[in-house]
Amino acid sequence: MPKPLPAVAANTWDELREPMIVPTGFREYDARWRFPEEINLPGMTALGLGLGTQMHEAGVPPRIAVGNDYRSYSLSIKNALMLGLMQAGIEVLDIGPAVSPMAYFAQFHLDAAVAMVTASHNPNGWTGVKMGFHRPLTHGPDEMARLKAIVLNGEGVERPGGSIKRVDGVREVYLDDLVGDFKLSRPLKVVCACGNGTASHFGPELLARIGAEVVPLHCELDYTFPHYNPNPEAMEMLHDMSRAVKESGADIALGFDGDGDRCGVVDDEGDEIFADKVGVILARDLAPMHPGATFVADVKSTGLFASDPVLKAHGIKADYWKTGHSHMKRRVKELGALAGFEKSGHYFLAEPIGRGYDCGMRVAVEICKALDRNPDKSMSDLKHALPKTWSTPTMSPFCPDGEKYGVIDRLAAKLTAMADAGETLAGRKIVEAITVNGARLMLDNGAWGLVRASSNTPNLVVVCESPESEAEMRAIFEDLDAIIRTEPSVGEYDQKI
Questions:
Q1: Integer Cα distance of 108 and 5 in angstroms
Q2: How far apart are CA 410 and CA 419, in angstroms?
Q3: Is the dihedral of CA 413, 416, 422, 428 positive or negative?
Q4: pLDDT per residue over 122-159, tens digit each?
């Protein structure tokens, strides 16, 4: 296998012949590139050959389920990837268009590894692959580093015995598995928001099958994304969900991202509930049935997992861990946790609820179950029952991919030194700096501020929370941002408070 080139000129012979892969597309736990600027189709075939070679090297059975999200170019990219896998001697099971959790489900259903061609919630123009060998896990930093070395060093090995087989029916079995024998016992009107993405072919049917009255919001498949990019963490989509709730009188809105592994929530009052708070609501609902359970939360998430008195009363243990679907899946499995929650909207529901991978569809069903178990309460009632905190959205200032990790190392060192010296942030004493993923400064009243590097895009990530007031939350952000601004390569935010 030739070593891929870092760039080839457009409309040239080499563009159609030579593999081209920009190295920065290999990220912590999946791969993301702009297509065709950063990877071409021969490059995707080289990636498939490298992934197949890695399967042989890891000693896993040479059998993999491959799916693709609903974008105009994803099928071409998947075909190129499958060609490389077949060259590596892998039995490829093409499950067709899919949400990412359907592909993860196929790992169990078909007893295979998985490779899902998806740009997730990134805008059109992006592509990538989420992959894993051992269910329900996906590649972490070590596996990604080895895959990167195999591909970029031209170490892919062609082997005989490869094949491609079309496998139909996985979608139907996946939906059956999600529904099970559950049927709502109370009326529930649900706005199903899909942003015209892949979840459009799953969400409305799933919710109708459990007995919900479905109010579809942009549930027509359209890979141009004519309204907005399907991302339920973005305020544009959340505001649209809020409008739909108010106009329809719905009990709740559930919104899915471009590959269906995340779920966003707007309550009956039209208020968006950030996913970490939804996680606390679900944890409260599950805690009486699973006393003493462990819940994992990512470092961007609310401090309520550790401080909520209801969870404490049931002996719940909280573990704060690295952001990222691969990190969280691994941690949930390692600790035997009941669930993991990320502020971005990834939920990892393990046995006996789910299988440990992130599935927006599973979360939608479990939220409906929680409402069904509380027939006299609305979603806003469950929200208001939580101890009050004020949180920022997830904010992402620009920082180049090649510089962001160095920036975070320097910022973490500054913030840790502040904590060690007993300094203050927003007038509050810093009591601890948690550095498992960037730096999360814990203040003496339970407030906190976080800065970390995005694993998927050329950005940093900033989140702040206060149990006292919105004013304190804003002050924490202003003080933290002033420290971040000492790094000249950090640019403008995608959104602010």
A1: 36
A2: 14
A3: positive
A4: 999 999 999 999 999 999 999 999 999 999 999 999 99
Beta carbons within 8 Å of 470's beta carbon, 6+ residues apart: 390
Q: CB under 8 Å to 313, separation ≥6 — which residues? A: none
Residues 46, 47, 51, 52: is their CA dihedral positive or negative? negative
Whether residue 89 contacts residue 50, with contact meaning beta carbons closer than 8 Å, is answered with: no
Distances (CA, A) of 6 to 9, 39, 80, 152, 169: 11, 9, 18, 9, 39
Upstream peptide bond of 19 is cis (omega within 30 degrees of 0): no
| pLDDT tens per residue, range 7-51 | 999 899 999 999 999 999 999 889 999 999 999 999 999 999 999
Determine which helix (DSSP H) or strand (DSSP E) holds 33, and give its type and residue range. strand 31-34
Tokens of 305: 């997992």
Q: Are strands 91-97 and 163-166 parallel, antiparallel or unpaired?
A: parallel
4 to each of 12, 43, 50, 205, 450, how far by Cα in Å? 16, 7, 11, 43, 37
Angle at which helices 100-109 and 170-179 pack, to 10 degrees? 90
Helices (H) and strands (E) in the chain — how many of each?
15, 21
Q: Does residue 307 carry a catalytic annotation?
A: no
pTM to 2 decimal places: 0.90
Residue 173 CA to its chain's centroid (Å): 23
Lookup: tokens for 244: 């739909």
Catalytic residue among 100, 120, 344, 396: 120
**Using an 8 Å Cβ cutoff, are 407 and 413 in contact?**
no
Q: Annotate 424-451 with b (16+ C-beta within 10 A) or e (fewer).
A: ebbebebeebbbebbbbbbbeebbbbbb
pLDDT class of 497 with cuts at 50, 70, 90: confident
